[in-house]
Automatic annotation (TrEMBL):
Keywords recorded for this protein, A-Z: Iron
Molecular functions (GO terms): iron ion binding
One Pfam entry name: Iron_traffic
Chain segments annotated as transmembrane: none
The organism of origin for this protein: Chloracidobacterium thermophilum (strain B)
A GO biological-process term: cellular response to oxidative stress
Superkingdom of origin organism: Bacteria
Name assigned to this protein: Uncharacterized protein
InterPro entries noted in UniProt: Fe_traffick_prot_YggX, Fe_traffick_prot_YggX_sf, WH-like_DNA-bd_sf, WH_DNA-bd_sf
Listed GO CC annotations: cytosol
Length: 152
């Protein structure tokens, strides 16, 4: 069973949700063309996503339902294009999940959120978390350790 949080999806379901977030309502055929995934995989993903109430179907088109089935974010998290994009596409539960991941990253790397280099790193991690390809987004990657310093 799929996790009810859209950011927890993997594989074809994740790609389908991301395309719907970016492009708006699309038909199954349009989703096959946009994702490049096989028709059978896309249709299976659509069925799973609809059952989990993460997408809604209106006639022949599908659209993201995260914000309609879950509580929306109360406000735009920050006044940037990324902040507005996250607010427009994520629910409050998805945002809480990101905040927990952000805290892990800040603690692991000893990041100061006021440091511009740390902010750039965290914004990149947020972009990956909400709009990435479904791979674990910016999990603790020790190859980056030592390359980000809040003392500069």
């Amino acid at each position: 069973m799929l996790d009810t949080l859209c950011v927890a999806l993997k594989g074809t379901p994740r790609v389908v949700v991301q395309v719907l977030k970016e492009k708006g309502a699309l038909s199954a055929a349009q989703l096959v063309a946009e994702t490049g995934h096989p028709e059978k995989s896309v249709k299976l993903a659509l069925g799973e996503l609809e059952k989990a109430r993460l997408i809604r179907r209106e006639g022949e088109t599908y659209a993201v339902a995260c914000r309609e089935t879950m509580a929306p974010m109360s406000r735009v998290p920050f006044n940037t294009d990324l902040g507005r994009k996250v607010h427009a596409t994520a629910c409050a539960e998805c945002w809480k999940k990101w905040q927990a991941q952000q805290l892990v990253l800040m603690n692991h790397f000893g990041l100061n959120p006021l440091d511009p280099q740390a902010q750039k790193f965290l914004f990149g991690a947020m972009e990956s978390f909400f709009f990435g390809d479904g791979t674990p987004p910016m999990m603790i990657d020790t190859t980056l350790q030592g390359k980000i310093s809040h003392l500069e």
